[in-house]
């Protein structure tokens, strides 16, 4: 399910499936994109930041057209203890690899991978980023 911002409308709460992962998309070419994500974060329950949130940054192949400071994006990941993924949607190979990575994250967050929890996976992601 896709939403342009949070909070989600409450009138369909009873029809909404369980939310296992929230991927916030940030277009590196749009300051509005970052501002929208920052505003939406206030509507996410704190328990989701235990491995069930990630930031997906698009447009990274066009660094010359950046409107968003990379430090601001890294800070989001750090403050919310959530992984930051970078991709270029215009390149099919990278798009497919990113989709597969998100799918694997979703499987872990939904509890479909025995022995791996969203919290431990999030910790592994942060540790590998530090290396």
UniProtKB/TrEMBL annotation:
Subcellular location(s) per record: Chromosome, Centromere; Nucleus
InterPro entries cross-referenced by the UniProt entry: Centromere_Cenp-M (IPR020987), P-loop_NTPase (IPR027417)
Keyword set, alphabetical order: Centromere, Chromosome, Nucleus
Top-level taxon: Eukaryota
Protein name: Centromere protein M
Organism: Aptenodytes patagonicus
Gene3D superfamilies for the chain: P-loop containing nucleotide triphosphate hydrolases
GO CC term, one of those recorded: chromosome, centromeric region
Major site of localization recorded for this protein: nucleus
């Amino acid at each position: 399910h896709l939403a342009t911002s949070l909070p989600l409308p409450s009138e369909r709460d009873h029809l909404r499936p369980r939310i296992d992962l929230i991927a916030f998309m940030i277009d590196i070419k749009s300051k509005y994109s970052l501002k929208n994500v920052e505003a939406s974060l206030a509507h996410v329950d704190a328990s989701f930041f235990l491995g069930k949130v990630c930031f997906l940054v698009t447009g990274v192949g066009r660094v010359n057209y950046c409107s968003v400071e990379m430090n601001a994006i890294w800070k989001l990941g750090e403050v919310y203890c959530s992984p930051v993924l970078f991709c270029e949607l215009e390149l099919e190979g990278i798009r497919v690899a990113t989709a597969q990575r998100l799918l694997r994250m979703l499987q872990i967050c939904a509890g479909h991978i025995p022995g791996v929890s969203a919290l431990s996976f999030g910790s592994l992601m942060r540790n590998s980023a530090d290396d």
